[in-house]
Amino acid sequence: MYPYHAKPSKILPNEELFVTDDGFEGDTDLGNYERFLNENLLKANNITGGGLIREIFQEESLGKIAPGQVIQILPHLSQKFIARLRAFEGKLFIIEIGGTVGDLEQIYALDALRRLKNMGSEVLFVLLDEIPIVYGDYKLKLMRRSYERLITLGIQPDLLVCRSTKESKIDFREALSNFCNVRKEDIFRDFDLDSIYELPFVLQKQRMDVRICEKLSMKYKKSNLAKWRTFVCKKKG
To answer: What would the mean pLDDT of 91-100 be, rounded to a whole number?
Structure first.
């Protein structure tokens, strides 16, 4: 989910663009998702804030919005986002909300997901933020602040993913758990790797796939990553 322009190509440099098979120019993250999923993604797989706003104003010009009704970010924009998501109902899908927690440009998307969960939909919230290392010590304040911002929006994260530059034997999960009301086993570490494609091995080792299935009430079947490991080895040369 790209919370800004209708066309990311309007503000992104060429080296940060990814062109889908149907000609949509999106963020490079779409390309990463294609490679991880081994699926061809299309324009429909990328929702933009600008695109939703344009649809609302088109509906207004066509008389589909009651005369005199005030168009607002909440609820109109969040309702439009929910409608787009429900087009995929019956499927398991991953939504990345771009930007930083608290950005005004993304608040309608977070509100929409909060409302979907309250409506009974199976929604799993994963909060990703940086845990910087300063003089050999992990600093948890960035993650704590992001967590607090989500709580003020009515969202309780189910899992935390902590980004850091390197792996360490220091285990900060207990301290973070005490601050963030998230169990220690639901906090995962994501450190710099030689290749981004090695990340599934790191997260599987921490049993993230098990916890996701448990929280979504899905039957767990351990993934066979043998082919993926071969792919990674080829990428690394």
So the answer is: 84
